[in-house]
Amino acid sequence: MYLLAWRRGVHGYRLVLVGIGASAVLGAATGFLYVRADIGKAAQAASWMIGSLNARDWTDVRVAALGLPALLPVVLVHARRLTMLEMGDDTAAALGVPPERSRLVLLAAGTGLTAMAVAAAGPVPFVAMAAPQPARRVTRAAGPNVLPAGWTGALLVTAADLVTQRLTGSALLPVGVLTGVAGGAYLAWLLRGERRGARL
pTM for the whole thing? Predict the structure, then answer.
């Protein structure tokens, strides 16, 4: 995706558009695999695609934590550059931050950490979008707060899992269902606020 989005550098909107296209292609491939798979395997895959903590054990925790010692320090060291990158590539470069290299390192490390979390629990939706906002409000600090956002995301997933168990009396409802519904409502609330503020 990074290479496809490259054109004298990588800009956010271009990376997003390439990501949408890649998601559509890979979604079609996933649908084809569903059609070709055994019905039982397809049901298991569908449950995993929603995002679930059901029947997870310490083996899954080890998988999720496998890259933390290697990748988390990289993210924390480069996280301070995110504030400068928010001001634009020219400003960041003038302040001594190499934009493309910083973006590539952070993207690679973040993708690695996300991949291991998804391998353990599936793609739990909307957590990455929702977690940074409460973290910023609680810490009252400017710029991206990587560690508070990570802890907030973990708290949101744990709370969603507890709520699904209380709603159903069991752990049969995947946590991704609740985070998807809550995340969709949260996104609608944010868009409503932007519209009221005449920013959208």
Answer: 0.77
